[in-house]
Specification:
It is a single chain. By secondary structure, the chain is of the alpha/beta class. The chain has 12 helices and 25 strands. Helix 1 runs parallel beside helix 8. The protein is globular and about 65 Å long. The termini are far apart. The protein binds flavin-adenine dinucleotide.
Length: 461
């Protein structure tokens, strides 16, 4: 007899799970029903800043697979249908058709929660004014582009200096706006240590972006028509024709909470290695709505990234389809850019290491992306953290021009393998002058870290 899996959410995690399950089970073996409250499936939110900035021409380029393509693979996809309640013991979900208002219960044998994350939108006066935009979904991106196309003024304020705020600042500069980025922290991109964040601020200032650190937004001021005219912060008022919010996200787990499913400290769902919700054999969860194990610190964290969501979906699809796969955890790798400055990080920052009681040494080195004499060689700064005494690699941050960012993957692999910085110095990396100096910058940092660990070693009495 055919089983039914119900999937809530039709983007990265949900549709990866559906597709993988369909690869393993035919429609007569497994009925796959996906509920999605939005208009789109399998789209790249990651591409929104580049679409807004004009690097990507068309919204449809960001859609990896359309609803029709999924339906052609016998996935029963129901758009504009919101799941409003989960009856765990009764194995059914209550849905609300957002077009007709109809309410329906649908039974399931297996359930997958892939509800993503919700953008943080503080309850500030004026936050819902015309001209204030988030950039979480394709609909949000389209609404922002419509505003940009119809607004005569050219002053933009970006609230938030995480990677999305930084990418959106660049997008708006590319569209000819004067951009102010308001940052609550000391330096942009608090996913890096402040001594590396300062490099990002300098680069952004070099592009003409007005970066304001250590400031807290207090209100959005509007004109007589209710359109945004300024952003008030605790230090000053910033005139604005358009405002973009990039204040981070929280796991979208209200449904799961109401159903009594286990949540971690961040509010993300807790799962086992196979992405099964803890204590529930027939329920899986993945993507931005779950917490993941940080393999470096050993703690549970909420790290909302598409790269994880897709992998979670594969693992869930395998489980739902009767196979077995696991997602062991993450080392915290992320890469981003602001114009030609590439920014990457993996593992622990100094404050993360302190928070889990690890003692560490740090080194910072300057190198180049290619052999110093080779045309196009560009400067690169690499910061590395290693554990005191053991020399275990704890984290790496890289800021530099072309060729800098994806070097972080070397460090991500070394972290996953729990290598020491000494072991890293012997890594057999490719070398030719157009690609790197004979000692790759990551290895230069590892060598310096080896010296730092040795110098720091406490002599055995
Ligand atoms: C501007 C931007 C840039 C980004 N850049 C990067 C990047 O460069 N690299 C990277 O790794 N990640 C990036 N991300 C993050 C990445 O997009 C997310 O991690 C990824 O989309 C998460 O996938 P998901 O399937 O878990 O959740 P989502 O993509 O949020 O999908 C969840 C879906 O569930 C639906 N849903 C929720 N609740 C219900 C319900 N009750 N009923 C029905 N449907 C529901 C939602 O409508 C949504 O479509 C970026 C995100 C943004 C916004």
């Amino acid at each position: 007899m055919s089983e039914r899996v119900v999937i809530v959410g039709a983007d990265a995690a949900g549709m990866s799970a559906a597709s993988q399950a369909r690869r393993l089970r035919t429609a007569s073996e497994l009925d796959i029903v996906v509920f999605e409250r939005g208009h789109f499936t399998s789209y790249s939110a990651c591409g929104i800043p580049y679409w807004v900035g004009g690097d990507v021409d068309d919204r449809d380029d960001l859609i990896a697979r359309t609803p029709e393509e999924h339906r052609a693979r016998e996935i029963d996809l129901r758009l504009r249908t919101e799941v409003r309640e989960i009856d765990v013991p009764g194995r059914r979900v209550r849905t609300h058709d957002l077009e007709t208002g109809a309410e329906t219960w649908t039974d399931f044998d297996k359930l997958v929660l892939a509800t993503g994350a919700s953008p943080i939108r503080p309850p500030l006066p004026g936050i819902d004014a015309a001209g204030v935009h988030g950039v979480q979904t394709l609909d949000d991106g389209q609404a922002l582009i419509d505003t940009l196309d119809s607004t005569r003024g050219r002053r933009a304020v970006v609230v938030g200096a995480g990677y999305i705020g930084v990418e959106m600042s660049e997008a708006l500069i590319n569209r000819g706006y004067q951009v102010t980025m308001l940052n609550r922290g000391a330096e942009p991109m608090s996913t890096l240590d402040p001594d590396m964040g300062v490099l990002i601020r300098k680069a952004m200032q070099g592009l003409g972006i007005h970066v304001v650190d250590d400031t807290e937004v207090t209100a959005i001021h509007t004109d007589a028509q209710g359109r945004v005219r300024a952003v008030a912060a605790d230090d000053a008022e910033y005139p604005a024709d358009v405002v973009v919010l990039g204040l981070g996200v929280r796991p979208a787990t209200e449904l799961a909470r109401a159903a009594g499913l286990p949540l971690g400290a961040s509010g993300g769902l807790l799962t086992d290695l196979a992405m099964r919700v803890r204590g529930h054999e027939n329920i899986w969860a993945g993507g931005d709505c779950v917490e993941v194990l940080d393999l470096v610190s050993g703690s549970q964290r909420h790290i909302p990234l598409g790269t994880h969501a897709n992998k979670h979906g594969q693992v869930i699809g395998a489980g739902v389809g009767g196979d077995y796969a696991t997602f062991p955890g993450v080392v915290g790798t992320a890469v981003s850019k602001v114009c030609d400055l590439e920014v990457a990080r993996t593992g622990l920052r100094e404050k993360d290491a302190r928070a889990v009681g690890l003692q560490y040494v740090t080194v910072v080195i300057e190198s180049t992306s290619r052999a110093g004499y080779f045309p196009g060689a560009a400067p690169m700064t690499v910061k590395m953290l290693a554990e005191r005494r053991t020399g275990r690699l704890l984290g790496v941050q890289i800021v530099g021009r072309e060729g800098a960012g994806k070097r972080i993957d070397i460090a991500a692999v070394a972290l996953t393998a729990r290598m020491t910085v000494e072991q890293m110095t012997a890594l057999d990396l490719g070398y030719a002058p157009p690609f790197s100096p004979v000692w790759d910058p990551v290895l230069v940092a590892a060598r310096k870290a080896v010296s730092a660990v040795r110098k720091d070693a406490i002599p055995i009495p």
